[in-house]
Amino acid sequence: MAAKWTEADIPSQKGRIIVITGTGGLGFEDALALARAGAHVIIAGRNRDKGAQAVDAIRQDAPDASVSFELLDLADLASIAAFAGRLRASHDSIDVLINNAGVMTPPKRRETRDGFELQFGTNYLGHFALTAHLLPLLRKGRAPRVVTLSSIAARQGQIDFDDLQARWNYKPIPVYAQSKLACLMFAFELARQSDAHGWGVASIAAHPGVARTDLLTNGAGEWSLFGLARKFLWFLFQPAAQGALPTLFAATSPQAANGDYYGPDKISEIRGFPAPATPPAKALDVTAAAKLWQVSEMLTGVIFE
Q1: Is 176 a catalytic residue?
Q2: I want to staple 265 with a disulfide (CB 3.0 to 4.6 A). Which of 45, 213, 228, 275 is the partner?
Q3: With contact defined as beta carbons under 8 Å apart, do 33 and 43 qualify?
Q4: Choosing from 124, 176, 261, 262, which is the catalytic residue?
Q5: Is residue 246 in a domain?
């Protein structure tokens, strides 16, 4: 792969339909770059105003961009099902799904509409359910891909099958790390499942390193330790557009293949240009991944087929 792969290396995406969760930060940068490359981009998020602002900003940058917004709340299984239903009614296929949106380290334990712990429920279970609902459309896509966002925090993650929803022991950072380890395990297991069942859908994982987005301040708060780090140690954080590059590589590069994992190439994958990332050992536990998949189907009530 190119030593310094950038947005300029994205192949033409003309004719491709790409769904991205999240209206700001990395998701916005993904949408902007892919719209510039000619894709029809569907931005999915829970805030209509932010969605409209994202669409307007992209159209101002690229007047010919094909981009739209759809309402999707990943913390609500009914909203996920309704979103997927609208897509199935309006599209014969989709080519790429980017599971990007997330919440990070709310100081107190919160729950999704369905009673899941907010980080695990939004970052992981919401995207698990969304991917299952959209699989029929993806299977009809052209060289279809699912890109799921993990994090360097996954290195500290541990799947606590006895307390997945952190009802007995909520600590913001370990629970976030668990959700991102789950996302990475899901990406790898989806790759195995696709191979085993002949779905023809490539599942690829990516992480942004440490990027300047609002994820820290939105979750932990502006004056939290994380929020202060974001404010005063800004030089450690690479721009959101740079942090989006591993995702864009995973979504578009002919070199990215089923089961791959990408992140930045410098300073222990904190910053830099896209390169193969090193997954933590726990993410490679095939038995645990299969168990997590089964538990997730039970919790969300979805089946991959």
Answers
A1: yes
A2: 275
A3: no
A4: 176
A5: yes
